[in-house]
Amino acid sequence: MVSEKISFAYPSVEIIQVRISGDWRISAGVPPVGQISAEFSRNPQIKRVVFEVGDEFKWDSGFISFLLQLVKECKPKNIGVSRESLPKGSEKLLSMVLKNSAEVPAPPKIEKESFLAGLGGRAVEINAEVISLLDFLGQLAAAFGRLLRGKAYFRRNEFVFIIQRSGIGALGLVSLISVLVGVILAFVGAIQLQLFGAQIYIADIVGIAMVRVMGAVMTGVIMSGRTGASFAAELGIMQTNEEIDALRTLGVSPVEFLVLPRVLALVMMMPLLTLYADLMGIAGGFLVSSGMLNINPVEYLQHTKSAVKLSNLWVGLVHGIVFGVIIAVAGCLRGINCERSAGGVGEATTSAVVTAITSIVIATAIITFVCQILGV
Amino acid sequence: MENSMPVIEVRDLDLSYGDVTIMSGLNFKVQKGDIFIVMGPSGCGKSTLLKVMIGLKDPEKGKVLYGGESFWDQDFPGQQAMMRRFGVLYQGGALWSSLTLEENVALPLQIYTNLSVEQIREVVRVKLALVGLAGYPNFYPAQISGGMRKRAGLARAIALDPDIIFFDEPSSGLDPVSARMLDDLILQLRDALGATIVVVTHELASIFAVGNSAIFLDPESRTMIASGSPKDLLANSSDPRVIQFLTRGEKQGA
Asked: In A, which residues are within 8 Å of B136 by CB distance?
């Protein structure tokens, strides 16, 4: 279909005249160089290519790529390409391309590493990660020490702002999730307890489960996604914008200036949010029990009161404090170590959330185990 | 297209940033083959004007006409067809970081043409060679310097042989030699491709090196206060703000 754009004539044995016409623009498609090479092999005496441009000839860089291929084809055969009769602009473009084509730097080396090298590399990486975590915790402890001695650079306004954002701002989400968890616990408990006519023990299940562990864990998960991720993104963007370097050159520890207020804010807010989540969870259980499972509301509350011991509450609050430290540290650490690239901030955010949630589950297991041994 | 018809015409254009009108009453024409400079101090609305012209932002009021047709009155396919005729070089190059230079330049060709894979590769080679990056098709944007990234961005901008090429601050962040190279490239491409070029910049060296027509946006009066070739403006303008800008504040104006 494209062949009518190109035709050949032989003014003499050594010269091939290439007639080009029609639309040679990229949008219309470019004829292959193969047709001319076929002429070359049929007539080995050809020493020169000249062009004749037809009336309706339209061109853009599609034509230039054709010429470039032609020149490449002709060079080893010592065939000259006359450029005089080419459209003026195209001649210019071709010389620009030819001039620049000479420069050939080494391509980048992208080596694929073997499985063992990858494994070893990962081990070294984990080692470095652990060291950077310890370094970070050390700096945090030092900053906290300076704060206690009243020597830290600590901005109260920012601290209050973070408390507001990570505490009060999270109430809505914590309410919704906690009420629903209470509802779910009540329903799941009811299925079994109804078999024995012991529905009233739903109050014990919901109360103890929420106060001792579920309230804290659900709040922890919510805060990892909400606040931990936002800490990582904030600090990551600061790292990308060289704001953290600017602090360092000023002699201010970024851990003291940026991380400490965030960690303290979250450590203060997490137990409070946990307490709130406990209440909301009990409310959820109460709603289902009294509304749908025909349990006497007063009896439900009495049962809850007698089942939930103060020790349960302490255990829950300890969970909350520990989770607060985990979430803030994971978010800030990932943010500060963020890579300066387009994907860096995204990666930091993701890994902050993953680290926080994983650590929360592990910490819960450890605390539960310790409580078991202590008999709390 | 008739010779008398301007390639781009802006009529009574108002620009806003948020709720604030930052420029009003913009009127100018860009003729075929022009290198048209939009200049003015930082924050005067140059980049906003560019965004409206390349279809990224609705104008508050007024029209942008390409070959006599109003861009913002088209339906989306109509706008798309017009946008295909633009190439834009963004300030930082705006290369897609997950693609190699070759893939960056090839993407518009893959979307808009029916060329085969080999043909696309050849066209991409031409474009990269035109901007002096012939040896770099397999590099990722993160592996090359800022100046090279801009040139690669230019290769992508001219991938489809656009009629109009827009440059947003082409020399910002470049050393003088690289900036000069890019200016030369702009001139060469205009001559070779016959394209019309719009440059948004406040770099005096570039303005005088490439521009043959210009407008000056003034942030205080919130409108354009001068138009003409940069050299004429420097020689003949009676407006102190224009003279001050064009002489880096050395002359306070007539």
From this structure: 105
